[in-house]
Input
Amino acid sequence: MDNYIDRVLSAVQREPDTAPATENAFDNTYLGRLPLAMAYVPFQRWGSIYDPCRALQRGTIFPDLDLPFCGRELI
Amino acid sequence: MPRTSREELMRNLQMMSFVLDDIALFLQTHPTDQAALRCYEKYRHLKREAEEEYMNAYGPLREDNVYVTNRWTWADMPWPWERQG
Output
């Protein structure tokens, strides 16, 4: 299966990159190219999982989904 | 070798159950993912082992695990959800 985000990107006409580069690589690579005001839920892919003890502590077995919201940003 | 405590065996069972539940959630949307299916089988086995280990040492986890002889023993031991026994 090819990368979901890449498929979304290939379906989206790419705008010329006129915005200044920022420090945030993810934002640069993906979010900056996507149309505004559209919501995306990338399809999860199987990856590594936590050991059972850590999984129960974190509330998920997936490091990819271990994204506690602290009122400011993703950590 | 000291006997593993009831709390420890219960914790182990809770960990395995949680992992199994989370894999099952993934499988709801990815029913043919072979890696996930293999992982599910692995943890299904580990959960069953954890259950047996608990029950062998500290008695039934559910009412229908009670081995019925001439007496109903479900209430004889601390129930699995009780902290002190």
